[in-house]
Amino acid sequence: MKGFSKILRKTDTKKRLSVPVRSLKSLPPFKLGSHAVEFEATDEKGETWAFHCSTRKSGPYRKPVLTRGWVAFVKSKKLQIGDKVRFVKYKNRATATISYKVRAEKEIRIFGAIFGYAPI
Fold first, then answer.
1. Cβ count near 85 (within 10 Å)
2. Which residues contact 93 (CB under 8 A, 6 or more apart)?
3. In terms of residue numbers, what domain contains 65?
4. What are the φ and ψ backbone dihedral angles of 77, each rounded to 5 degrees?
5. How many structural domains comprise the chain?
6. What is the pLDDT of residues 32-85, one digit of tens each?
7. Any idea what the CATH number is for the domain that residue 108 is in?
8. Is the dihedral of CA 92, 95, 98, 103 positive or negative?
């Protein structure tokens, strides 16, 4: 089981999710020569979300981002700056199939201080 989480910034809530480069191993592999991959992830309610992950075609810094499908997910979960998203890659030992989970978490504030995060 591999995964990553990220606290959302303005661009993450409005346009695309910037994925940390070190977290690419938690997402589906790109085919040789490709700079994009489509994949599905299931949320806590069992709903399936289709995402498009791409990187720059050239240059030393790949800068991966989730685009297609991402803004719809943000709107559906009513995510805001400061909320957290978590992606997890699972491998079924019996069948060797790979699946992905996505989890949205709302920031919990008490008297202005961040207390933690709660799943949506």
1. 22
2. none
3. 2-119
4. -90, -5
5. 1
6. 888 899 999 999 999 999 999 998 877 767 789 999 999 999 999 999 999 999
7. 2.40.330.10
8. negative
